[in-house]
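Input chain follows. Return structure tokens only.
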Amino acid sequence: MSDRRRVIALVTDAIGPYHRGGKEQRYLELAHRLAERAEVHVYTMNWWRGPSVRVDGAVTYHAICPLLPLYSGERRSIRQAAVFALCCLRLLTARCDVIEADHMPYIQLLPLKLVALLRRRRLVVTWHECWGPDYWRSYLGQPGRIGWLCERVAMGLPDAIIAASPQTASRLVEFTGGRVPIHTAPNGIDLASIGSIEAAADPADVIVVGRLLPHKRVDLLLDALAILRDEGHPVTVQVVGSGPQLQSLTDQAEALGLGDFVRFRQNVDDRALYGALKAARVAVFPSEREGFGIAVLEALACRIPVITTAAPDNLARHLVARSDGGGIVCDPTPRALAQAIASVLSSADDETAPDDRWLDEYDWASIADGVAKVLAA
């Protein structure tokens, strides 16, 4: 019997540390942990300078596509998605035993399915969030029917799906009718790293972390801060992240007269991020859509209260609800956010930290075990 190590091909158009986000962090963390069990090759855009192939520890990175902007305005770029999908045909000559791909932006799954069929390899796809027809319609209007068709067709292509949350798994089962095996392996956090970092020396009352995109609804938070200020409760805020809405949010803060209270920070590494979270009194995530919510999990691990919204597509609310007193889930309105922030700030110093032992199951080592089992099937 051969003792050759299995070869895993991870396909994603964006990955950390070059690009920050939930899926990017997931692939960065899992690539190195899966490399303890198999030979791992990551196929992505050309995020780095130098040769198209680079080695980082036990992981080999391949630039199969030129670096193109992920967004056109505030929405995903169709051109980038099409070019990356075409470049995925380069895996026809790649050495691998199984292909594991990110589900976004969907159309790359068509050439990857062709590669898998011709090479007689399994195609496993990680689904970070399942939109469904209603959200596509609210996102794009009438053209959303085409978006939903793309997502629906994509669901039938993998040999197996890994859902990034139990809720996403349930929605996938609903839409696929169980015709594709679906496994759950949530996003995770590095508990040891978070525990080793001290609070930063420049605290803020409130912190919000994430890509500055429309569905993150940081605009709601700014409106809530204006309400608190007008009621005699000025609050300092750090907005940590970058994205297409940076300028519009900066302009909104100035227009609301919040320039002295809001600080925008970009290019923050993990140590600085965890330090900033621990220094804050409350973390606010006003998203209307989250497939999981790594930043929410990180904030809870930093032992600060978390406020998020009850928007139906915001699956991070389930993490806050599970935290047993670690935060508040409120209506997705400025007034509700303002009331929740005021409530937490008035009681934060008096609250006993909630039991956070449940976070152990989200350690990346445990998540990698689950993913490895699916890929080895």
